[in-house]
Amino acid sequence: MYTDRNGVGITVSGDPRVTAIGRHLRRTKLDEILQLWNVLKGDMSLVGPRPEIPSYVAKYNDRQKSVLSVRPGITDYASILYRNEEELLASSEDPQRFYEEVVMPHKVDLGLLYVSNASLRTDLKLILQTLSIVPPGRKSAEGSV
Fold first, then answer.
1. Cα atoms found within 13 Å of the Cα of residue 137, Cβ hemisphere only
2. Residue 72 CA neighbour count, 13 Å, CB half
3. Closest Cα partner for 115 from 72, 74, 59, 60?
């Protein structure tokens, strides 16, 4: 992905900043393999709320900040539910605003759901759900959270 200087923190489907190789890596979810290094280093967990960019975290209210009480992870409820986020954002008239006002607050709420229910059982459930959707082309399991 090419970088730009406008500080946009989201990527929509068809974003010209994404290279051909990047599109393939994103579509197959191979871009997430690099996160395993962060898990091995102890910076991340396999399961936990996905880390958000600092400019969005700065907008969290006190309740939302409690999502930061657990180690961030590669997968969580939001990763599963919003696995086609780029397409969802591309269908919005104002993707940035839609992300900030609708998607991000919902993702934080899902992160808080994880924080309040964190357990080995929850982690295993989320890992299995993630593995069931990793192959590209699988349809969304909306409502299964």
1. 1
2. 16
3. 72
The backbone torsions φ and ψ at residue 74, rounded to the nearest 5 degrees and listed phi first, read: -80, -35
* List of residues 6+ apart from 126 with CB closer than 8 A: 47, 75, 76, 77, 80, 114
Q: What pLDDT, on a 0 to 100 scale, did the predictor assign at position 36?
A: 85
Q: Is the dihedral of CA 65, 88, 86, 17 positive or negative?
A: negative
Chunked in runs of 10, what are the mean pLDDT values of the chain (145 residues)? Answer: 47 60 59 81 93 90 95 94 88 91 96 96 96 64 48
